[in-house]
Structures are given as structure tokens and as C-alpha cells.
Amino acid sequence: MFTLFRRRTANGTLDAIWIADHAGAPMTSCDRIEVDLTGLQGDRYRHGRGHWHTVEACRVTLIGAEELERAARRARRLRQPAEPAPGEHRRNLVVSGLGRSPREGELRIGETRFVIERPRPPCGWLNQVVGYNLAAALRQDSGICLRPLKGGILQVGDPVEWHAVARDDPGER
Question: Could you say which residues of the chain have pLDDT below 50?
Fold first, then answer.
């Protein structure tokens, strides 16, 4: 059977970089950070000090600014804080321009490259750390897990390019 592939792309901008030294530690904003194949320099995930089950481990997490805006609207409806405080989402990278975090393919951010591994659903631990039900506000807009393919320096303002190859054959579904 012949399958056609269609190339999909999107462009955006790296808006923020966040790291925490260990599980539950306050998130710290960075303008620039070094990335290697194990993750972000100084971050809990890179050093194995995050809160996760082994099968759910992420080296780097990403969320879209648009997803955070949708979560803020849900939080208001749920009578939670109107705007999550900066970094409360507990994701490493915030990007704008992609709409929703992509679920497949690769991201190039500045000089670095990442493969998209899977969605990163929120968990009860998030609610314990922030003190309210942010997980309910995030829901499916909770970001993704990334695995670095090429290290380098990330800087706020770097261009973001998403590339995915998707099947375009209705007979394959």
C-alpha cells in the first residue's frame, strides 16, 4: 500500500526559560541556559531530582503561551487564581506562536534541537506545589516532554521551528 506523507511546520518564539534545582523548589527564570543531551544545565530533570515515576521522566518540558492563556481562562471559571503566577506551570520552556504544543516531530529552538516524546499531563504533585487546582485548569493544555538531539545555548527570544511528518492516507486510519 502506498502512503503519502505531508510535511507540516510552524514557527514561534522562545518566551521564557524556567528551571528548578529539585522537586518542589521554586522555579527560577533564566534568559539563557546551556542544553546538552541530558537536559537543561542546573534543572531538576537533568540531575534526576524531579518528581516523576521512572517511566514518565522528561529531560525537558515545554508549554505554549497560548495554552497558558487557555488555562488562565479555565482557572477563572473554576474560581482559581485568575492568572497562574510566572513559572507555576512548572514547565521548562514557554513558547509562543505554535498555538498548541505539537505532539510529534522535532523542534529547533535557536541552535538546539529536540524530539517531541509525548504530552506531559499535569498531576496532583503540581497542585501540592502551587497550593490550588492548577492541574484542572491546564488539562490537555499541559505541555510536552522533549528529548534533546543537539545541545547548545537557549536564549529567550530564540526562534522556534516545528517540523513533523504526518500520514496523509485516510485508508491507514
Answer: 1-7, 166-173
